[in-house]
Amino acid sequence: MTQFLQLASDGFALGCVYALVALGFAVVYRASQVINFAQGAMLLVGAYLVSLFAAYAGLPFWLAVILAVAILAASGVLFQMLVLRRTLGQPLFTIVMITIGLSIAVTAGVDAVFGPNQRLLGDPWGASRFHVGRVVFTWVEVWGVISAFVLLAAFFVFDRYSRYGLAMRAAAADPEAALAVGVPVRRVHALAWGIAGAVATIGGVFLAGFPNSPNPQLGDAALLAFPAIILGGLGSPVGAVVGGIIIGIVQVLTSGYEPGWTGNNFYEVAPYIVMIAVLLAKPYGLFGTRPAERL
Fold this sequence. Notes:
Layout: H1 2-32, H2 39-56, H3 61-82, H4 92-114, E1 129-132, E2 135-138, H5 139-161, H6 163-173, H7 175-180, H8 185-208, H9 221-232, H10 237-257, H11 266-281
Antiparallel strand pairs: 1-2
Helix pairs in contact: 1-5, 1-6, 1-8, 1-9, 1-10, 2-3, 2-4, 2-8, 3-8, 5-6, 5-8, 6-8, 9-10, 9-11, 10-11
């Protein structure tokens, strides 16, 4: 029972971080109907910037995170304004391929500039931990869960009660109709990319401390968060949260209980198996909605 509780708590903490990463996918898709395959590269750059500012430039960790969030948010806005804005009216496949190309280029660039070795994150938690009964918690897990819920709550408030949150939903529902009534669709798209960059940075910080240091393979974690947004439902922030937590728990429980005949890395495959099983029952995900069609 203790092992199960330990694995479940670790999986929940990891799932909350996956929820942040999945939220980045959801925000961009919700605003522009585009799946951003560069989310992992943004996460990678964010973690490396925090490492550079905190561990190597000697800045306070909180200031390093704020600077990295600001840089990634600005980079997301600039990428949308300078590159993706020129693709308006083009097939979505073209935009998806651009995000894939960006991901490959950025990941290769990080590897070329910083090298393949792990780096210090510069976080104040390190490997510090405490016990609740027989269950061990690390402080990076605790702060990861707290940060995830604070940021997700802030986004829900923004989405439901702010002017731009309403504009984002209108642009996602019908871009042409939104333009006709004065919604600044291009500005909404740029804002979505800015939010995705900021959220990716926070997700990268906690994934880098959970438990590895920043390294060029960190961006691959977004591939494990991707099933979360599909499982939860594309474009659904609630689905991103629920899907992320489910995927995190499934991954950690599988790694703890996987039988020997499945090999050593079956826990990396398990989230995709769960995703496929859910889609067979609910093709649009747990919180996805079937698009309206005229008969």
